[in-house]
Amino acid sequence: MILVLNAGSSSLRCALFRPGADKPAWRAHVAEIGHDPRLSVDGAAVGGERPPAGDHAAVARWLFVRLPAAPTAVGHRVVHGGLHLAAPVRLDAEILAALEGLIPLAPAHQPQALACIRAVGEVWPDLPQVACFDTAFHRTQDRLAQLYPLPRDFIDEGLVRFGFHGLSYAHLARTLPHGRILAAHLGHGASLCAIRDGRSVATTMGFTTLDGLMMSTRSGAVDPGLVLYLIRERGLSADAVADLLNERSGLLGVSGISDDVRVLEASDASAAREALDLFTYRIVREAGSLIATLGGVDTLVFTGGIGEHAVQVRAAICRGLSFAGVALDEEANAGGEAMIEASGSAVSVRIAPANEEREIALSVTDALEPL
Q1: What is the 3-state secondary structure (H, E, C) of the chain?
Q2: Residue 364 belongs to a domain
Q3: Is 298 considered catalytic here?
């Protein structure tokens, strides 16, 4: 059995896979770690037991005792692998030190993943562990797609576009027919990826997860001069700007109501409608640039919580992409079917559930196979 650990900023997803299986044999999710932790198992809330009020390591150890079967290997989602970790890798002291050095590039996620790695090492010191990186899938991009127009010294130091959501995109690339794919991972974090023949060509996130699309609470791309203005003229500290752009912007900031698409769609407030319109506008605008990079598009695929469930958001995006040959079957879209393009559409339009955990499990098998 392969144990998969997916540590979020305040959550931990845990799943057990048999090698090669499409679905986990067991899955657990602890939300609101550090605040009011709540447990669900196989999608159902569990009220009888309360996870500990500690950090990710404490929650991980608590879950390990409750596993229905002992694992033979563990795979971890690690957000940042930097420039050089471009494939799943078995963890050792040297790799751990490298991942520690990347904490400043992903401070909301990297420490939590490392805490879970250490927790596994404490409980099962001889168990092989494999790190799978959200950045790795994008290392196939051409050099120009990764560069910022900064002084050469900064480029040489590694201040480049990394891209994220790579495990989600890698799973799509593994399961969809090859060709020119525009993938939209739309959830609390949101990004687009241009995939050609299974390889990342371009993506909207850059040096950090703050770049690109408007998101639930993140601003996405803004004028760098705006950041300077907030610091110089409004007197905001760097930490205050980080909080503003990461936690108080996006759908939440523009609407002033909620970061939840369902709440905004049910609201009569004009600000709620404007937030949703801006969200889809920014997606269509960025999608146009990625379609240009691909030289056209054969398949548009929606994934992530919003991408999989927000009927109106999908419809608005498809209308905006009609110039590229996208035509939506409204009835199929409303029913959440896997294929939602209209008859005669030049572009295949799909809904594909995000499955980062299966991608991690498969990657663990691949990484450990030679051993």
Answers
A1: CEEEEEECCCCEEEEEECCCCCCCCEEEEEECCCCCCEEEECCEEECCCCCCCCCHHHHHHHHHHCCCCCCCEEEEEECCCCCCCCCCEECCHHHHHHHHHCHHHCCCCHHHHHHHHHHHHHHCCCCCEEEEECCHHHHHCCHHHHCCCCCHHHHHCCCCCCCCCHHHHHHHHHHCCCCEEEEEEECCCEEEEEEECCEEEEECCCCCCCCCCCCCCCCCCCCHHHHHHHHHCCCCCHHHHHHHHHHCCHHHHHHCCCCCHHHHHHCCCHHHHHHHHHHHHHHHHHHHHHHHHHCCCCEEEEEHHHHHHCHHHHHHHHHHCHHHCCCECHHHHHCCCCECECCCCCCEEEECCCCHHHHHHHHHHHHHCCC
A2: no
A3: no
